[in-house]
Amino acid sequence: MQVKMLANISGTRDGVEWPALGGTIDLPTDEADALVAAGLGRIIDAPKVERATPRAKTETATRKG
Q1: Helix/strand/coil for 2
Q2: Looking at the DSSP assignment, which residues form a beta bridge with residue 25?
C-alpha cells in the first residue's frame, strides 16, 4: 500500500531511511495500517479488492394446462 508520511520518522526501515514529511513509501498492509493508526501516515493507494455479489434470483413462470 502506498502511504503518505504525515510525520518524520528517524532511523531506517530495512536499511533505508524513512521518507521525509509528505513523501511516500510502499508498505505491506499490516505495517501501513499500524502507521495510519499511530497518526504517522495516510493511505493514498490501497489495492482494489474484488468482492463477489450474489446474483438476484430469477423467477421463471410455467404455464399450467
Answers
A1: strand
A2: 3
pTM above 0.70, yes or no: no
Cα(58)–Cα(37) distance, integer angstroms: 44
DSSP letter string, 4-61: EESS---SEETTEEPPPTT-EEE--HHHHHHHHHTTSEEEEEPPP-----PPPPPP--
Q: Tell me the per-residue pLDDT of 14-50, one tens digit each, with 9 for 90 and over.
A: 999 999 999 999 999 999 999 999 999 999 976 666 6
* The C-alpha cell that represents 28 in the structure block: 505491506
Among 10, 44, 9, which Cα is nearest to 26's?
44
